[in-house]
Amino acid sequence: MPWPSRKRDKGAVADKKEPDAKIAKTEEEAPDKEEEEKSTKPPAGSSKSGWKNWKKTKESDSGGEESKITYCHWLLKSEPESRLEKGVDVKFSIDDLKAQPNQTTHWDGVRNYQARNFLRAMKLGQQAFFYHSNCKEPGVVGIVKIVKEAYPDHTQFDQKDPHYDSTSRKENPKWSMVDVQFVRMTKRFIPLSEIKAHHLAHKADGGPLKNMMLFTRQRLSIQPLTQEEFDFVLGLEEEKPH
């Protein structure tokens, strides 16, 4: 039996702890046709240790050189508090994930092209933060891993589902999902406010969270993380909360 969708792409709102943030125009708007056609995937790197967080490549055709980031981890937003969307409660907390068979679920309902492309770029075994969003105190609560790479999201064809898309065709589905499995809870809850404080400091001194998408593209429910970003945030679980 399918369970309520976890994502919050259409009609998404910024986290309540971010009233001063500039809101990126992403998931609250209609899908962008040009973005759909490009279906661009971020590169997924690897190294002897399993991951590669970044690399620089030369753009010979443009005659210039630019840094390109290789993402190898992810941040998945989900709503832990009840909210009805077209009559369906889209609540799904990390405890709900732990209660699923084999602590595994499909991450369905994503309806933003950039977020979808990030889903399609996910590789088997990669880890992601489970992030409670659109709630009294948003933040990172646990870690999950990708156990099945992208495949067609069945909810796009279900007329009873709040994320039904009448324009999608089974022979060429617009939307994808992945399967994720619970790995563990973080040693403590890592609130958005704490991560933001480090982000602001790193913007000034060039630290690893200076470009973290959680603050540059707040509305995306699927966000990539570099190895440095993932490691830094994970390291916060060892520190006493401020």
From TrEMBL:
<feature type="region of interest" description="Disordered">
    <location>
        <begin position="1"/>
        <end position="65"/>
    </location>
</feature>
<dbReference type="InterPro" id="IPR015947">
    <property type="entry name" value="PUA-like_sf"/>
</dbReference>
<dbReference type="InterPro" id="IPR052181">
    <property type="entry name" value="5hmC_binding"/>
</dbReference>
<feature type="compositionally biased region" description="Basic and acidic residues">
    <location>
        <begin position="10"/>
        <end position="28"/>
    </location>
</feature>
<feature type="domain" description="EVE">
    <location>
        <begin position="73"/>
        <end position="234"/>
    </location>
</feature>
<dbReference type="GO" id="GO:0005634">
    <property type="term" value="C:nucleus"/>
</dbReference>
<feature type="compositionally biased region" description="Basic and acidic residues">
    <location>
        <begin position="56"/>
        <end position="65"/>
    </location>
</feature>
<dbReference type="Pfam" id="PF01878">
    <property type="entry name" value="EVE"/>
</dbReference>
<keyword id="KW-0539">Nucleus</keyword>
<dbReference type="InterPro" id="IPR002740">
    <property type="entry name" value="EVE_domain"/>
</dbReference>
<dbReference type="InterPro" id="IPR047197">
    <property type="entry name" value="THYN1-like_EVE"/>
</dbReference>
<comment type="function">
    <text>Specifically binds 5-hydroxymethylcytosine (5hmC), suggesting that it acts as a specific reader of 5hmC.</text>
</comment>
<protein>
    <recommendedName>
        <fullName>Thymocyte nuclear protein 1</fullName>
    </recommendedName>
</protein>
<keyword id="KW-0597">Phosphoprotein</keyword>
